[in-house]
Design a protein that fits this description.
The protein is an alpha/beta fold. About 35% of the residues lie in helices and about 20% in strands. It is elongated, with a radius of gyration of 24 Å. The two termini are about 15 Å apart.
Length: about 425
Amino acid sequence: MNKYLKKTKIIATLGPASSSKEVMLGLMRAGVDVFRINFSHADYDLVRSNIQIIRDLNKEYGYSVSILGDLQGPKLRVGVVKEGSYLNPGDILTFTNEKIEGDSTKVYMTYQQFPQDVKVGERILIDDGKLVLEVLETNNVDTVKAKTIQGGPLSSKKGVNLPNTNVSLPALTEKDIQDANFMMDMEVDWIALSFVRHAQDIIEVPMEEVPAIQKNLVERARFYSKPVIIATQMMETMINSLTPTRAEVNDVANSVLDGADAVMLSGETSVGRYPVQVVENMAKIVKNIEMTNFYQHKNEPIEKDYNCIDERFITNRVCLAAVRIAKSTNVTAIVTLTSSGYTAFQLSAHRPNSHIIVFSGNKRVITMLNLLWGVRAYYYDMNKPTDETIIQVNMLTHNHGYIETGDFVININATPSYEGGKTNTLRLTTI
């Protein structure tokens, strides 16, 4: 039976530890819904091979696992630094465009426009904010001097963030454009952009503000029916250990409680020693927290004023009505047909307690929808009248193990169903 499947999806990053058919199948069985391919470290021949393996496994075992290509984006880094280099608060560090071996007084900066872009008083964050410096002066050509505010070890090739600086770099590098074209040729389901152009879009924030901002971002994404992923360092201990820390268990559980569509693993599955066990543990945590009363009563349908002039007005209202009825009538599944996937996005954003079972004749849509919270998508392309279609999709939903005899099911459809119109009909049925 599939009645108790988790609704929050799991994304696993592919890498040396997981680029084999056996491990990928193990990850799918453990609960992976989306494979992430990080193009910072991508070899096209290996990517082609991995994509083919995923699609072969989907076809062979009846999965709909999605593929997400993640662009590298522009990388700001310091160069090679001598072992043992250390910055104390108050120390002055000079950034130069000259390719030198750096130390605790001078370091090479890979970003050549840095002296022109940066201004006195702006912050420089190195190694995910472990080191914080403030710009003292720039010659606007090839040198910047900065004072250490928060010190620590200075290591080779660490990333640099400029939270206050209007960076003149483009959002897409030449490599990104090449990678994006390759992704489109390979027909991946999702493309992730790693670099945001303006500070007003995303800025670095103090660590103590992150939890509240995370909750706010999830809420806003749901309001606009956009899938939201919470990522990085979720089970990092399990890169080398079979057991996560209690803090990591809580981090995963709280991300689920916040209402994320998906939680993501990076190094844990790409280079870690126990990729399958990580996913098994994460799936246990997700499923357990979703079974609790405070999770099931947490995410209420989103109340917003839909514009009746909007061409999607009727679909939006029908989806909201379906979720409201499902919440109050103990409906086991909301079953719908879609061509574009729009209805699935709307239903998922409301986070109903019931399953969201989607049927589509568009095979690209089926794997794309596997990222969305609570959505399970299957292929169906029969051009039948509405009544026959509802009978058939309900039978298929029963055959897939999501519903049993006596369960309540909501069907939402476009009537007539075979003209590919917009959703306009809701039906509550007992199986």
